[in-house]
């Protein structure tokens, strides 16, 4: 129980969960954000308001900036489209009751120009009302009656001198009209032919919010020419399509057996590290001394009680570790889990800083103490239970970190059980040794000021982890991050690292710290490491010509990947683009004769981002990629920028689930990332010519050789 922290924790959970729930539904007149409505009004009119099947209608979308707010809006297709940083997004919604036709263009209004924030060139904008017109044909299959068509693919923004506010199709008014019964005598033959034969034109580039409050293009001008965005398929149809692929794919071999011993060794190492945490270390001599006194110095009795004590710890922690390992792959991507973990780590960090204490409820604490005081085997068991529960506050982050590393590769039950037992056994082993050899207790360093410093450093680390969890949650909840952006979280890490370095230099003290006239050499070294890390990461927060600075080295590459930069609809560091539809990639393969490279990935996959940022841009790998049709199959949810019009979070998640089911059925693993080379065959089958399952790529040359070898096999 958190004594004085429960109200704070509840408040933090409420505040942090609020953005996730702030998804207003579509009412009859839309639901514009208050900040947007204060700066501009939006109206949608269908002309004529009543039409029969096959007739042409005009949808008039009007944005009127409010003069009293001194606001403005932007064109959707500015004259300097590749360079203008801020614009509206205008794309045809997918076919439904209305089938959109023709071409999209900005109306002929008096567009003004102003200098760009970058200082290079001019951006178009207007303070006057602007009306876009979208032509559509009432679908021959539309049912009779009132209709409200959601304008998917449209995203508007309005700005003032302070900020810019965006509103997407979910918050804009729908296009309302009525479908009348009967045959029409005013059908435009050309419009009807275009609507019933040709799909809607592709959507323009999708802008994303910029750090300055406006927007910026998602890719560079060169990359935009090859951006791959798709029209969303119905979720049932996509799931059926991927299910059908399971029977068509041949030649997929089961992955090699998991490296059990390496996994067990890693688990044991994390268990040993947990022993030096502030909640655990001071309890070692205390708890061992208690049951040594019960044994009256007898070796046999000490052996029995030590065994009971350690087996109890192993059982409780082992079950906890097994549960995390079993479900971490699912839990680690669920937004609610990440919000709760972020709030929990924030509460724990404040506790380690000395703001309040976290302990067991008084009733439970008294009961455990009463049971422990009875002595013997029963008292020893309850003593171990009490110690395990108390220490879990500090052990949980290490246990969760270990489970997170194994989470994408933990489908093998024997491996999970062995890992959980190894973690718990390594944690409990010192107690067994110390119980048998009491003299070793004297060799342990005494608790004191050094342990308080460890607590504070752990608090800083848990604060950094909280930011990461909250960012992961927002990535799953919103089409694009608006609060815990990559820049904000990275800036938080820079500040945390700097503050930790100053603390270790005794620049300030926290409530439980002792006054120290000087610091030790190890403390100075750790302080310099934290300050150096802060200085090393800080340049990544700066942007020149709209491009972030990227410090060189593997440390930043790991930090960048861990904080999950948003994926874009083009390949990082190369000219060719990636698709997200396997059928389209196979169709392209038939025409080009090139095999298909499949990247099973995820929005919240750290190793995926490391490979994409460090390995894929290398010349040898990039040259090989040019000889493939490339497709990314997201197994959690497909990012919104890959669509011509956002189908909504539920549809994007359903598509990711279908991709994950396909991966598990064909390749017998849910590991991320997983890379495979496929090629369509004359008999309609799809053959697998290579699978690369290393996860994080440690040898780029080996990966490039895999690409070349698999491509040559597919060509034979």
TrEMBL record:
Alphabetical UniProt keywords: Cytochrome c-type biogenesis, Membrane, Signal, Transmembrane, Transmembrane helix
Signal peptide: 1-22
Protein localization: Membrane
Region entry Disordered, spans: 195-230
Pfam families: DsbD_TM, Thioredoxin_7
Membrane topology: Multi-pass membrane protein
Residues in Cytochrome C biogenesis protein transmembrane domain copies: 261-470
Compositional bias of kind Pro residues: 198-207
InterPro entries: Cyt_c_assmbl_TM_dom, Thioredoxin-like_sf
Segments passing through the bilayer: 260-284, 305-330, 336-356, 377-405, 417-441, 453-471, 483-504, 524-542
Main location: membrane
Protein name per UniProt: Thioredoxin family protein
